[in-house]
User: Fold this.
Amino acid sequence: MKKVLTVLGARPQFIKASVVSAEIVRRNDITEVVTHTGQHFDSNMSDIFFKELGIPVPKYQLGISGGSHGEMTGRMLIHIEHVIKVECPDIVLVYGDTNSTLAGALAACKLNVPVAHVEAGLRSFNMRMPEEINRILTDRISSWLFTPTDIATQHLNREGIPKDRIVQAGDVMYDVALFYGARVNQESGRLNELSLNPKQFILATIHRAENTDDLVRLHTIVKSLIKISKEILPVVWPVHPRTRQTLSEQGWLTILEKAVKLIDPVGYLAMVQLEKHAALIATDSGGVQKEAFFYGVPCVTLRDETEWVELVTSGWNHLVSPISVEVIFGAISRALSAKPARIEPYGNGNTAVAIVDELTR
Ligand code: UDP
Assistant:
């Protein structure tokens, strides 16, 4: 019986882990212990996902959040090392590109426990992003690198990662979207509560440091979303706690609230409902870019670069640096009528099975 210690900490990791954990539960040759670092801790950023997606209750809750990157990662390292020593897992499993990912991988590697990294090989080629540093370092010390796409595999090949460590398993988020997307319809839920008509609203999410820590960029996004809400279609924006803090500090919440439907972060099922029925999604989230594509919704990504380049080249995603209201407004107006052809870059929806097969081989 193989024992996996999974290290989770942030919202997108809970969503990715849900399908792999479910597959582990189905098997009798592998077992899982979950550690939650505490990086995301609000009930609508954490607990709701464990409940809605049936993720095993974490055996360890480290309660580590806030502070600088170095401080947060360092505190996680200390505690995860301790958990690894107590649990003696065969594998440490990490997801994505957060500080929890790096801390889990580094603690395991130093104790000679092999690391499995789900969503390996993504690159933005922007070393100013904390996520880029976390993913490159995690890939370098992982024994299983589960890549979602051809392009991610090519990045690892180019970096000289031994080929026998790379497994192109597909994208776990596609598995999750297929499962929940089929179960969520336009009846009840948030659409009704917010008086939104299907395909008659724009969904926005903004949380990346490059937008929230740069006040000029954030202000440009705020002004753009107000104009779009008044002149194109109503905008609904589930506001990430970090973004809300900056908006509040800058005194921009009041003016925003007059034009845009600002709501607290929503659970996964409500998010799927909003995504599926949006006319367009404007975001800086990695996961939301792909979910827009999964549900056939045009997307405008408000960043300078994206890791999911196949969606840009195929016309599903329009990459726009948030440098002026005119640029954002123009991009969103044009993208609303885009009709790109379907592509299949993310596997066949059986990624979780492929990952667990590999871990138990
Ligand atoms: N999400 C959610 N509720 C929200 C906003 C996002 O459930 O209010 C989900 C979204 O559907 C996606 C994931 O969170 O699956 C994306 O996480 P996030 O944008 O925080 O991180 P990223 O994908 O950029 O790493």
